[in-house]
Structure formats: structure tokens, C-alpha cells
Amino acid sequence: MPTKTKAPPTRRSSHETEAERRARVGKIIARLEKAYPDATCALQHTSALELLVATILSAQSTDARVNLVTPALFAKYRAAQDYAGTDPKVLEQEIHSTGFFRNKTKSIIGMAQALIERHGGTVPDTMEQLVRLPGVGRKTANVVLGTWFGKNEGIVVDTHVQRIATLLALTKENDPVKIERDLMTLVPRDKWTWFSHTLIRHGRRVCIARRPKCEICVINRLCPSSRV
Ligand code: SF4
After folding, report:
1. How far is the CA of 217 from the centre of ligand 1 (A)?
2. Whether pLDDT at 5 is above 50
3. Per-residue pLDDT, 11
4. Beta carbon of 219 within 6 Å of any ligand 1 atom
5. What does the DSSP assignment read for 173-188?
6. How far does residue 96's CA lie from ligand 1's centre (Å)?
7. pTM across the whole model
């Protein structure tokens, strides 16, 4: 008679209750905290303005690519006024390698002009004010609020967070705003910013799109999509 294989005790069943899912998320967080105790934003910056510009540049690009462009950019453009008064053609050339350079140029100049008109040239620290700036959506605002201002207002849902949240069965949604809402109900608020940075790092190093390294993943026993 064949021996029955015991299922991993902590892996999600297909009928997971809300309480079970919360408990599983708690274990996922504990394991990720050990693996990535210092996870933080990979975009280099020394001010809220630099982080805002870098985050706008990171859309459809990689942080590594943005980090190649920003040292020269930040040395030249030190304040919102510098971006607001620049020739778009010059800025387009300077950020060309990050892709979508025309739209990004428009966003950065428009954002800088709005900062001067509405906020005296400084970056505001509320979600409401940030998302009213040209080129700044909830994702960008979350990066700036969480990373620079230390405010857990939401969870950054980029391509890595979206993919891993789905693989972990923490959401059934496709829309980043709805995914964020699902994650905000499962992850304790004081962990929101860290959780985003951590999933992004995990997505780059281990849970890589199309070739996840489940065999070395610290949360494989808690993941319903694990291949091991
Ligand atoms: S077990 Fe595999 S699919 Fe699940 S999070 Fe880890 S690497 Fe990704």
C-alpha cells in the first residue's frame, strides 16, 4: 500500500480562511525579515526631490539604469527651480537612456513647476498633495512617503510586488490599486514600506519572473505556487 505523503503543514490550502491567510502572512514576514533585514529603496538619492525624480525615471526602467543617470542629473539640478526652468530638449537627452524620455521630461518639469507654485519648491509629505503633482501616481507617492518621510501610507505595488503577491495567493486582483488594498489588510501597517522593498528585492534575487528559484526560497513552504 503506498505511503501517504504529508502535505507541508503551513502551506495554504485551497480553502484558506482569512484568519489562516493572516497567520501565513505573519510567518512569511518573519522569514523575509531574517532574509532581508535591511531591505530598502534601491534608487540612489539624498533628498525628497531626488527620490521623486528618480522614481519618475524608474517607470518602465530598472533602478540600476536610473542610478547610472542620476548622479550627473542631481549634480546639475539641485532644486525644483532648476528643473522648472530647463530646456525640455536638454533634459530629454540627459534622461534618454531610461526610456519614455519625452513623457518623463514632461512629468519632471511639470512636477517641478507645481512644487514651486503650490509648495514653495519643496516636496509635500501627504498622499493627497503628492498625487496631485503631474506625473506622480500613488505608486510614486508611496515610494517617497515611505522611504523619505518614513510614513506608511500604502504599499508600493510594482511588477515584482504584483507578481509575488499573486504567487503567494494574497490577492486575486490585477489592478495595482486593488492589490495594494488587499495587501494593506493583510500586512501590519508598520511593515508596509519594508514589505514593498522586501518583495521587490525577493523578486530580483529569488522569485524571478519566469524562472523563480523556489528551491532556495525562504518562504517556499508558505507559498502555494512553490515548485518544490
Ligand atoms: S516559492 Fe517560488 S513562486 Fe513562491 S515565492 Fe518563492 S520563488 Fe516565488
Report:
1. 6
2. no
3. 52
4. yes
5. --SHHHHHHHHHHHS-
6. 34
7. 0.88
| Per-residue pLDDT band at 15 (split at 50, 70, 90) | confident
User: CA 145, CA 173: separation in Å to the nearest integer?
Assistant: 24
Dist. CA 107–CA 87, nearest whole Å? 13
Closest CA to 120 of 73, 74, 81, 85: 81
Catalytic residue among 158, 182, 190, 191: 158
Taking Cα atoms as reference points, which of 209, 158, 154 lies closest to residue 187?
A: 154
Q: Grid coordinates in use for 206?
A: 529569488
Is the distance from the beta carbon of residue 220 to the nearest atom of ligand 1 less than 6 Å? yes
Contact 111, 137 (CB under 8 A): no
Q: Is 73 exposed, middle or buried, given 0-12, 13-18 or 19+ CB atoms closer than 10 A? A: buried
